[in-house]
Amino acid sequence: MTSERYDAAPAVSLRSAEDCRYDAVSLGEVMVRLDPGEGRIRTARSFRVWEGGGEYNVTRGLRRAFGMRCAVVTALADNEVGRLAEDLILAGGVDTSLIRWVPYDGIGRAVRNGLNFTERGFGVRGDVGVSDRGHTAASQLSPEDVDWDHLFGTLGARWFHTGGIFAGLSEASAATTLAAVRAAKRHGTVVSYDLNYRPSLWKGIGGQRRAQEVNRQIAPHVDVMIGNEEDFTASLGFEVEGVNEALTELDTSGFEAMIDAVAKEFENFAVIATTLRTVRTATVNDWGAIAWSRADGLVHATHRPGLEILDRVGGGDSFASGLVAGLLEGQALSTAVEWGAAHGALAMTTPGDTTMATRAEILKLAGGGGARVDR
After folding, report:
1. CA-based R_g, the chain, Å
2. How far apart, in whole angstroms, are the C-alpha atoms of residue 113 and residue 106?
3. Which helix (H) or strand (E) holds 119?
4. Which one, of 106, 107, 25, lies nearest residue 72 by Cα?
5. DSSP state, 350?
6. Mind listing the pLDDT tens digit for each residue in 319-370?
7. Which of 183-192, 232-241, 332-341 has the lowest mean pLDDT?
């Protein structure tokens, strides 16, 4: 796979970089991740600290791995934990000027910051995540808290990314997501959305039925839709027989049928993309990706069977940021999906939600390079 520019019409129509302050902006909650390393949450005596959030991880990857101008729209309670999250975001190079700071009441009775305890699995023991994110500042962010026309019109953003995790936090976050994607489209900003269905997130507020109501309101304003087979079923209500079994065996014919059904209903989708993962153990997965556009049809990234994994959290987000980076740079969809699959694979070799990969490493792997020592 090369990184040559694509000569045909691009998959998405982008605003000029010169007219925009930001290449990409994300909307989502940023939590403080507490990681017990090789141990268990229940027996930990110390934790490593990272930041992370499904939507934020994408722009963080675009900034750190691809050098793009990125910002995050979120809210934090103004206390020491919130300032810790800010410090971690600043270390990732993401612009924090769009963060809404909410006064703290002293004990978190009305507003607080999200925590995410995540332990890495090994072998037959799977990963475990325990989120503590009720009543957070981000979940209370309302449409009126952000001047969307100033962001997308006056400042300008070429790309906007958000997803189903943030949209599912509360009624306010669902409304905020909808307001944001509508404003982005008014100003010609490309919108990507990762469905990212989490049963635990929706089970107390209506389950799949509510997830589908929310996501079906948002979907007509999306250009690039990202999700796996479960996401399209649970979040959008598409049922195609044999999809799960087909993907397990890397026969994508079932998923092609699902994409066909999705694309027929949502004619606004310019690109549909998904990762392909078969879990052999917590530390060995088969890994790949596919993407679709109306011009290209279905394209496949390199399949990597038996991929060794250190920390799988954030692998899908890094896939999304690699895909978005390729499309922002005007690459062929086949190249963009290779960048995404390579970035996701590399991100899962290091701890934490966010990438430690470089652009050179991503392009090397996407181009067929291996794990020989670089000296």
Report:
1. 19
2. 12
3. strand 115-119
4. 25
5. S
6. 999 999 999 999 999 999 999 999 999 999 999 999 999 999 999 999 987 7
7. 232-241
Judge whether 142 and 174 are in contact, CB under 8 Å. Answer: no
Phi-psi region of 104 (alpha: psi -120 to 50; beta: other; left: phi over 0): beta
Rounded CA-CA distance 184/179 in Å is: 9
Q: Are 50 and 72 in contact (CB under 8 A)?
A: no
Quickly list H helices, the chain: 56-66, 80-91, 148-149, 164-167, 171-186, 199-202, 207-218, 229-236, 243-248, 253-265, 315-328, 333-347, 359-366
Domain ranges of the chain: 17-28+57-72+146-366
Task: Specify the amino acid at residue 213.
Answer: E
Q: Which pLDDT score is estimated for 6?
A: 39
CATH topology of domain 17-28+57-72+146-366: UDP-N-acetylmuramoyl-L-alanine:D-glutamate ligase (3.40.1190)
Q: Per the structure block, which two tokens stand in for 116? A: 């995410």
Give pLDDT, residue 258. 86
Answering whether pTM is above 0.90, one says yes
How far apart CA 90 and CA 84 sit, in angstroms, is 10
Q: Rounded to an integer, what distance in angstroms lies between the CA atom of residue 41 and that of residue 2?
A: 43
281: CB partners within 8 A, 6+ apart: 123, 124
Q: Centre a 10 Å sphere on the Cβ of residue 212 and count the other Cβ atoms it contains.
A: 20
pLDDT on residue 7: 45
What pLDDT, in 10s, does the model give residues 201-227? Answer: 898 889 999 999 999 999 999 999 999
